[in-house]
Design a protein that fits this description.
The protein has a single domain, classed as 3-Layer(aba) Sandwich (Rossmann fold). Helix content is 38%, strand content 20%. The chain contains ten helices and eight strands. The protein has an eight-stranded mixed sheet with strand order 1-2-4-3-5-6-7-8, with helices on both faces. Helix 1 links the parallel strand 3 and strand 4. Helix 5 packs across helix 6, helix 5 crosses helix 7 and helix 6 packs across helix 7. The relative contact order is 0.14.
Length: 276
């Protein structure tokens, strides 16, 4: 590119960049979303940027970088999260992503926001990274997946199912996160959802579904929640199933708090250029 989207503004575009809100139906409710639109005359490729649990870190700095690079960036709030109607659950989040992808393919939506018809790119952090992989695996309308410190919820569910004390502690931790931003659920309900059917949430069990997609896993060397070793194991499972997967490590914590510019460069590299 003729400029560095991580540190520089792009040349002027006509029409210029904009920020727009929208509502996406999913199940029996509607999700609130925000679109970072790059402007310009050519329809833009789309990145869906998925937040974690509960989503205090929305990675809006990455949205700005990706918009400068020419992407239209969709930031959703799942059902029951941060003011979106409905009930929050992990299964609902997966359904919500499928609803987003179908909505993005609506000709009226593409015309309204000037979006191209390329397969979409999913980028997620923590739970959002897991959701990107689980919802995007083998999806015909998803070409590229980037998981930033995203765990395999299937492995987590198996561990919680086998250890009652750990399940109680995790439910308490979830409860602290759920109290304000998430509706219609509880820490205990989320743990129960995971342990009811660990195989449903397993990424390793779906390792062969990623064939033909670009997958990048990003680890934080000082991450106290999702270790590099866990991501190495996931990468190994994908590669063993003939699903190419890259693993990048940055010297940061779970939120990559100290390496935001480095994180932006890793994400841009994983996604590739947006085009004209």
């Amino acid at each position: 590119m003729s400029f560095d989207p991580v540190t520089q503004d792009p040349p002027p575009r006509v029409p210029g960049p904009s920020l727009e809100s929208a509502a996406i139906p999913s199940g029996d409710a509607v999700m609130n979303v925000v679109f970072y639109l790059p402007g310009g005359k050519a329809p833009a490729p789309v990145v869906v940027l998925l937040h974690g649990l509960p989503g205090e870190e929305r990675n809006q700095d990455l949205a700005q970088v990706l918009r400068r690079a020419g992407y239209a960036v969709l930031l959703p709030h799942y059902r029951g999260a941060w003011g979106s109607a409905g009930t929050f659950s992990f299964r609902h989040c997966l359904e919500d992503i499928d609803a987003m992808l179908r909505w993005l393919d609506d000709p009226a939506v593409r015309a309204r926001f000037s979006l191209d018809t390329q397969p979409r790119r999913l980028v997620g952090h923590s739970m959002g990274g897991y959701l990107a992989l689980r919802a995007g695996a083998g999806h015909p309308r998803v070409s590229t997946l980037v998981s930033l410190a995203g765990p395999d919820f299937g492995i987590m569910a198996e561990a919680l199912e086998a250890d009652e004390a750990s399940a109680r502690a995790t439910a308490e931790r979830f409860e602290n996160w759920v109290a304000g931003p998430l509706a219609g659920t509880s820490g205990a309900a989320l743990v129960a959802e995971l342990t009811e059917d660990p195989s449903f949430f397993s990424l390793a069990a779906r390792a062969g579904h990623f064939v033909g997609q670009r997958v990048t896993l990003v680890a934080g060397a000082e991450d106290n929640y999702v270790s590099r070793e866990r991501l190495e194991a996931l990468q190994g499972a994908l590669v063993a199933a003939h699903s190419p997967a890259a693993l990048k490590t940055l010297p940061g914590d779970h939120a990559f708090s100290s390496v935001r510019l480095g994180l932006a460069r890793v994400v841009l590299s994983a996604l590739g250029e947006a085009g004209p």
